[in-house]
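Slide 14.
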Amino acid sequence: MSVTKTPTTRRRFLQAGGASLAGASALAAPNIARAQGTTVIKMQSAWPAANIFQTFAQQYADRVNAMSGGSLQIDLLPAGAVVQAFQLQDAVADGVLDAGHHVTAYWYGKNKAASLFGTGPVFGTDANQMLAWINYGGGKALYEELINDILGLDVRGFFAMPMPTQPLGWFKGEVTSIDDMQGLKYRTVGLATDIMNGIGLSVTQLPGGEIVPALERGVIEAFEFNNPTADSQFGAQDVSKHYMMGSYHQAAEFFEIIFNKSFFETLSDEQKAILEYAAEAANTANYGLAMDQYSADLVKLRDEDGVNVYRTPESIMKAQLDSWDKVLADLEQDDFFRRVVESQKAWSERVGYYMILNQADYKLAYEHYFPGRLPS
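Slide 15: predicted structure.
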C-alpha cells in the first residue's frame, strides 16, 4: 500500500488556518515559536491519544524537555491532529510538522527496504540486538542513505524502544496449522504483508486506529497490532477471544523518531545531541514500562476478559521463515535492499552466535519455579 504524498507545505498549511488540526489550535502560529529562549517543536505521532505508544512518545518528549533546561519544548500531538498516520513522514519532510514518532513500516510503500529498519526478517537476533546493529553495525549509515540519498527526503531520524516480538494476533478460533489461516482477511503492515500473503492470508494494511472499524465492516477477519496493552486499549478482546502469541512477521521492530532536517540543522550542537541521545534514554523508559504493562495486561486478558491465550505452533513459524526466504529472493534483486540484508545477516551471524550460545534457558527456569503456567 503506497503512502500518499501530501502536497501541503508548511506555509500553505499555516495560511489555511490549520483547518485539519482538529482542535489543536497551537498550530495556527508558526511551528517554531521562540519565547524566553525556548524552541517549541511540533511533533505528531502515529498513535491515538489513549494508546500506550503515545505514552512511549511522551516519555521521549519529557526527556528532551527536561534535559534541555527549557531551551527545547516538544509539543506532542496524537495521530490525526494534523495528518493521518501514514502521511506523517511526508508532513515532517515538507515542514508541516517539525517532528514525528512512528515506525518505518508506515512508509514502506515508498521503498520496501524501509521495512528492514523495523519489520524485517529474523536471522536469529531480536529487536535489542538489531537496534545495536543500527547503532554499531552499519545500519545507521544505510538508513540515512535510504532517507536522504535514495528518497531525497528532508528528514533526520533516530530509533528507540526495541519492541518485544509481536503476537501472531487475534482470530475467531485457535490456529493450530497453516490450514486454519488460508484466505483469512488479515491486518498487518510493512513487509509482514508479503510474508503473511505468502502463507495464504489476504492482507490489508491499516493504522492501529482503523482496526476495529475495519472488523465491524468486514474488511478484515483477523489481525495483529503489537502487544497485549495496545491491543486491549482498542478493544481487541471485545471482538475476539483467541490470541496467538509468537510470530516471525514482526519480531524486531522499534520506533522511528524523525525531524525535519532543515529545522534540525538550525539547532545548536547541544540541542541536536539532546534530541539524539534522548532516544537512547527513551529506550530504557519505554522498555521498562512495556515489561510492566504488557505482562499485566496479558494476565488481565486471560483472567478477567476470558481470552484464550495460545503459543503459535512451530509449524506456522517455520512456514513464515520459508515465506521470508521467497520474499527476500525477489526483493534482493534491488541492490540497496540486498546490501541491507547482507549487513543484517553478517551482524546476526556473529551476534546471534554469541547470544544463543551464551544465553541461559529462561524457559527452563520459568517452568522450574512456575510449573504448569505456560500453555502446552
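Speaker note: Residues 187 and 208 are 9 Å apart (CA to CA).
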